[in-house]
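The step that takes the researchers longest sounds almost clerical: writing a folded protein down as plain text. The outcome of that step, for a single protein, is printed below.
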Amino acid sequence: MGRAKDASAAFGRLIAFLAVSGLCGALVAGIFMPVAAATWGATNGTVQFFDNLPSELSVSPPDLVTKMVAADGSEIATLYNENRTPVSLDAMSPNIKNAIIAVEDYRFYDHGGIDTAGVLRAVIANVKGDRQGASTLTQQYVANVLKENLLAQGQDPTVVLNGQKSIGDKLREMKLSIALEKKNSKDDILAGYLNIVFFNTHAYGIQAASQYFFSVNAKDLTLPQAALLAGVVNGPSVYDPTARPGPSVERRNLVLDAMLKHGYISQKEHDDAVATPLELKVNPPRQGCAYAVQAQYFCDFVLHQILNDPAYGASPDERYQKVTRSGLTITTTLDPRLQGPAQAQVDSTAGPNPDKWGTALVTVQPGTGRVLSMAQNTRILPGQGKDFVTSYNFGVDRTDANGNDLGGAGGFQPGSAMKPVTLAAWLGEGKPTDQIVNAGQRRYPLNHPWRDTCTRVIGAYDSSTVASLGTSGDLQNDEPQWYRPMTVREGVYQSINTATFASAAGLNDFCDIQRAADALGMHNGEGAGAKLDMSVLGNLLGGPNIAPLTMASAYATFAANGTYCAPWSITDVTDSHGKRIGGQAQACQPGSIKPDVAKAVTNVLQDVLTKGSGYNIKDNAGKTIYLGVPDAAKTGTNEFNSETWVIGYTRGLATASYFGEALGNPEDHLGRNVIVNGRFWPVVDGAYIAGPQWAYYMQKAIGLYDRGPFDAPPPSLITPGKK
C-alpha cells in the first residue's frame, strides 16, 4: 500500500504541475515537467526517468500504397499493407477538420501539446469510476507515429492507441508532444494525424477512408459524412458503419452535437445532418495483382521480378515490405492500347472452354525488348468472369536465370516454330534460301556423319534399328507428298520436317544451330539459366518447352535485323518522393544474328503467310486473314496437336500466339477430334486457332507501331551462285 500511495501522490503532484503548465504555456511545461516527473520516477527507483525520455519524435513514413502503372501512366494495380494515400490539409474538407477537433480535442488550437484541463477532467472522472481519456490530437498523432515506426522496423507495435497506458507511456507521449508542437505548426500536426489514423482494415488515413466508405475524395466529404468518420476513429470496430450502422449513426450524432456545442455548425446544419440517413457507397480497395485493373499476369510477372531483385532489399521479406509499405511507383512497359485487344482476343478464342484449353498472346517491341502486352484466357481468382482459374502465367518462364520463382507455367513445345533456328544457322554459313536439299531422306541413324565441332549429336531416326537400339522410327512429315527434293525456303514455309533435317545435315558445323538458338535468346521454359540443348535431334523440331515471351523475343530479333534485345518490363521504380530507386535497362546486342541473315529469314517467313502453312490462318468464313502490311510468321504444332503456335511480326511488333494444353501433360489432352468454341476440329494445327488469334489481334495493334517494309536480303543469301 505504501508504494501505491507514494505513486498516487507523485501523480497528483504531476497533475498540479500540469495545471500550472497550462497557465504558463508549453515553454514552462518543458522547463518544469522534468521535476514533477522525477518525483514520480523516484518511487520507481529511476530519478532520471523523464530526463532520459526522447524529446525528438522520429517520424518514419507511414505505410503508403505502391502503384504499378502502364507506360501511359494508367493504373495496373495497387500494392500495400495499409491502404493509405496522404493528402494535404487543403485537400481535406473543412467538415472533417472541424469534426475531429470538436469531438477529440476541442482545445487543439489553444494547448501546447498536452491539455492540462483535459487531464484534470479525466482524473476526476476516473476517481468517480468513469473511464475517460485525456490525450490530445497531438498525443494521438505521436502514439500513431510510434506505432508506425515499430512497424517500419519490423517490430511488434505494442503501443496502445486507445486503451489504458502506463504513466511511463503517457509521460513519453507528453514530452514528445510538447517537443513536436514547438517544431511543427498546428495545421501540420492535424494533417499528419488525419493522414495516419486508422479507420478500417481497408482504410488508413482520411483519403482512403473517404474513398472506402463513401467513394469520394476527402475534400468532398459532406458534414454528415465527415461527422461519421470522425466518430469511427474512437472505435473502428465498434463504430464500423458497414457492420454496425446503428452505433455508428449514434456516434455520428454525438460528433454533430460536439460541433454544435463548440460553434462549428449552426443548429439548422446540426439538425439537417442528424436527419440524414446513413448513405454508404462502399468502394473496397482491390489490392494486389489478383485485383489488377488490367494485365493481371503481367502485373504478377513484374512483381516477381522486383521481389527477386536484391536492389530492393537484402532478403525477400525486406523487398516485400518495401513494395507493400513504401509507396513506390512502378512504371512498366505495358501498352494498354495493345493489352486491351490482347485480353479480349484470348478470352474470345476458346469461348466457354469446358476442356480448359489455354490461350495466350505476348508482344514485344523489336529493337527495344519492351514487353508491350501479356494476356491469357484465365483469371487468378474464382468469380472474376472466367471458369478457368490459375495463378500460373502462361507467358513466362517458371523461374528466372538465378532460379527464383517467376510464377510461370514453364513454357510449351513450340513444334515447327523452331525451324527458323536451323534456317538461321544455314544462312549464317552463307548458304542461300533457294538451294535444293533432299527432303526425301527419312533415315538418320546413330552413325550418321553429322559434321559437328562442339558436341556429339544425340538421337536417331531409323526404323531399321528401332527394335535393337531403341531409336525412333523414320522421320515423318504430316503429309506424304513432301518426301522429295525441295528448296530450303519451301521446306520452311511448308513446314517440312525432312527438309529441316536435310538442311541440318548440309551444315558445315551442326553446332551452328546451337549458336543460332543462343543468339536468339532461346532457353528452357523452366528457367534457371538452362539453355536449349540443340545437339538433341528432336529439339530441331520443337521438343523442349519454351515460354511465349522467349519465342516472341527470338522472332523480334529477325524483325530488328539481327539485334537481340532481352525482354524487359520495368522502366522506373520511384520512391514516395519521386526519386528513382530502380528499374530495368534496355539490353540489346546488335549483330547477335548477322543483319543479312535476319533479313533473309524474314524473307522466307513472309512466304509462310502468303503460300505456306500460314495461308491456313482463316476466318470463320474460310477466308485467309491478311494484315495488309509487311509481315512474317511461322506456325508450330507439337506431335500431339496439343501445343500450337503462331509467332509472327511486323517491323514494330513481334507476337507469340499460343493455344493448347497449358497446365497438364501434352500427351494426355490430344488436339484431335475436339470441340473448341462450338466448332469441331478433327485435328488442331498452329494455323487453325492460334493463327486467327494472332491475326485478329495484330490487325488491331499494327497501326500503333512501325509497319513499314522489311529490308531486302542480299541476293547471295537467296539464289545459289549469286553474289
